[in-house]
Amino acid sequence: MGRAPGRVNLIGEHTDYNAGLCLPLALSYATTVRATVRVDRAVSVRSAQVDEPWTGTLDDVGPGQVEGWASYAVGVLWALRESGWEVPGVDLEVDSTVPMGAGLSSSAALECAVAVAVADLLDHDLTPELRRTLVEACRRAESEVAGAPTGGLDQTVSLLASPGSALLIDFRDGSTRDVPLGWDDAGLRLLVVDTRVSHALVDGGYAARRADCEAATAALGLPSLREATLADLDRVEHPRERGRARHVVTENARVEEAVVAIGELDWTRLGTLMTASHVSLRDDFEVSCHELDLVVDTALQAGALGARMTGGGFGGSAIALVPAERADAVARAVDLAFVAAGLGAVHHLDAVPSGPAGIVA
Ligand code: GAF
What we know:
Elements: E1 2-11, E2 21-37, E3 42-47, E4 54-57, H1 70-82, E5 90-96, H2 106-121, H3 128-145, H4 153-160, E6 165-170, E7 175-180, E8 188-194, H5 204-220, H6 239-263, H7 267-283, H8 290-301, E9 306-310, E10 317-323, H9 327-340, E11 347-350, E12 358-359
Parallel strand pairs: 3-5
Antiparallel strand pairs: 1-2, 1-12, 2-5, 2-6, 3-4, 6-7, 8-10, 8-11, 9-10
Bound molecules: 2-deoxy-2-fluoro-alpha-D-galactopyranose.
């Protein structure tokens, strides 16, 4: 059975499709996929969570051919075939503890669990090189079949994470490095608050942000925003595009600083950088929302060292770095703030830095 984790991004948001830096970690919440080979070319996908089974054949799967949640699963079969694999007809049985629509990468967890399950069926060893092939197949499934033009962060961490570490990903050259997280020893925990406001990356907001970044890159005449400096930004005439670019440039710098802070066990500094990232996403990139801002502000008032939205935004989850003895108080303060604001109840989860996708019994 294939198993792949969801993720939170500690810092480095909306930088992946700008050849930038990200620092996500895999969660203990994961999706499993049992793949059974068929003798014909039929494909079926069933989920314990979603009552919408999909059936078809390998030939029915491709860009523009499948809609809904199953497109993320069967899109991987298409992408693996595109990369030259002889994928047989399969029955896929999906089960998951990754909350859907919470910005915790349930889609990538599904794709990566399908990918490792199929790799196992075909007797491929999960070598580091094969894992990178699977990252690319899952990314193609999501953008070309499911129609969500995402940047690769989620699939990369789901397939390449290490337990106890965040994964520094440099999207300029695709390189990755483990960044061990020692906050347990300092008595800290990373809390996740799912606002239960659903977001969908196939909606226009994400694609519009990408388009703004591309326009700013073109205005600067650079290969990507990774090459841009703050001083360059005056040359981006459109204020909205300038704000998007400012977020990306400052966010890359914050990721570099965060890696240093983690290495120096400077958790106060890490918290400050996380909060600055949220402000930049809220004001310059405009992907936060009232509920995410409320979680962040409330968590900070209740004693968090830092807090920010995580993932694509427009709803989903926020994270907060908190002293363990303040964790309950922070969670209760958020609950009360939501009641006071007349909003629905949030879900509280824990971010335990976990291992990557693999095969389980
Ligand atoms: C979503 C996307 F899927 C990622 O590729 C990334 O762009 C993220 O939003 C924002 O950092 O999770």
